[in-house]
């Protein structure tokens, strides 16, 4: 019998751009677009909204300054002498690395090193001039800093923070398994975000690392059956989006895993579900989806993050101050 995964192979589509995906959070906020149309009156290119006559996107300049301010605030509050700091990628993380380097150089911080959660993170930390160690070289991490693709909070005051990481596939695929290990070794997890999803629910694409080789299809089929009607399962590849990964499906360097995307979208409208995530046709929380994924044999890691202690959001307060959200762990939504 032909499976739904095989049947969907004859269709190729890409996810629609959403308000959450526009930040793509490895960090480039597409807050505005600049038009190059000729102005009928002057014959000169028209200056787009938020763009100066010199061609500089002023909104992007402000967005970058806000992202840097949030990263600096994070370092000020959560990085101290002797810390081992886990890091992933993203422009806000890069700003935090730059601030750590600056403070190490001027003596306001001492004996701080970072543990990267991926190849790209290691390169970015080295470029920033911050000492780098492997996860195996440290017994524990004092704090881990992640920039997220999308984030929401639950409760008032917040009883939980839920986020998604690992959507970006360029220039390299995320190491979801190493990210999971770094988080698991951390005393504190602090998230950085360019915007807060509230009051909209968490949804869209969730990356999932599963076993590779001949077993990947069996695991993908189980996920496909579990989320039938709720989410589609697409394997990542080097080419166009394809449920089976196309001609060059992604396989990790060690050959141990591949990545599939759970796309929580309405297949008829090609847009994300208004309720965010679904399970068995009903609205579901990120905690429920994470629990199902972690209970599926062959799933090695996923991009849902629910263990965060603190969240810094760029310029979410009046006056350009970053919004800082700390959670209480007395209850879980």
Describe the protein's architecture and organization.
The protein is α/β, with parallel strands linked by helices and 333 residues long. Helix content is 24%, strand content 22%. The chain is built from 7 helices and 16 strands. It has helices at 4-7, 58-78, 91-106, 119-128, 176-184, 216-226, 286-294; strands at 84-87, 113-116, 143-147, 150-154, 160-164, 189-193, 204-211, 232-235, 257-266, 271-272, 277-279, 282-284, 299-302, 304-305, 310-313, 323-326. The strands form 4 sheets. The chain has a 6-stranded mixed sheet with strand order 2-1-3-6-15-16. Strands 7, 8, 9, 10 and 13 form a 5-stranded antiparallel sheet that branches. A 3-stranded antiparallel sheet has the order 4-5-14, with helices on one face. A hairpin with a 5-residue loop joins strand 4 and strand 5. Helix 2 (58-78) packs across helix 3.
The overall pLDDT average reads: 84
Order of helices and strands: HHEHEHEEEHEEHEEEEEHEEEE
Question: Main sheet: which strands, in order across?
Answer: 2-1-3-6-15-16
Note the overall shape.
globular
Major sheet: 6 strands, mixed
* Rg calculated over all Cα atoms: 21 Å
């Amino acid at each position: 019998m032909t499976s739904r995964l095989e049947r969907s192979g004859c269709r190729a589509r890409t996810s629609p751009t959403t308000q959450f995906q526009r930040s793509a959070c490895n960090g480039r906020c597409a807050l505005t677009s600049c038009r190059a149309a000729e102005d009928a009156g002057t014959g000169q290119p028209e200056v787009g909204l938020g763009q100066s006559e010199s061609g500089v996107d002023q909104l992007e300049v402000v967005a970058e300054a806000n992202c840097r301010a949030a990263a600096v605030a994070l370092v000020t509050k959560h990085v101290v002498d002797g810390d081992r700091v886990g890091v992933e990628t993203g422009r806000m993380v890069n700003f935090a690395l730059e601030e750590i380097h600056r403070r190490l150089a001027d003596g306001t911080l001492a004996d701080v090193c970072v543990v990267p959660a991926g190849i790209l993170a290691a390169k970015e930390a080295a470029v920033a001039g911050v000492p780098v160690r492997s996860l195996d070289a440290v017994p524990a991490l004092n704090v881990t800093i992640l920039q997220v693709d999308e984030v929401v909070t639950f409760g008032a005051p917040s009883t939980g923070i839920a986020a998604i990481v690992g959507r970006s596939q360029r220039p390299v695929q995320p190491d979801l398994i190493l990210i999971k290990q770094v988080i698991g070794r951390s005393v504190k997890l602090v998230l950085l975000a360019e915007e807060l999803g509230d009051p909209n629910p968490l949804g869209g694409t969730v990356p999932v690392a599963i076993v590779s080789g001949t077993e990947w299809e069996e695991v993908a089929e189980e996920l496909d059956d579990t989320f039938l009607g709720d989410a589609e399962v697409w394997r990542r590849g080097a080419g166009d989006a394809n449920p089976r990964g196309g001609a060059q499906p992604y396989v990790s360097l060690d050959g141990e895993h591949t990545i599939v995307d759970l796309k929580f979208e309405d297949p008829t409208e090609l847009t994300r579900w208004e309720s965010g995530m679904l399970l068995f046709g009903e609205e579901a929380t990120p905690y429920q989806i994470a629990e199902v994924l972690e209970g599926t044999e062959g799933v090695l890691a996923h991009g849902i993050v629910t263990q965060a202690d603190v969240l810094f959001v760029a310029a979410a307060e009046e006056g350009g101050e970053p919004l800082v959200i700390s959670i209480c762990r007395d209850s879980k939504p």
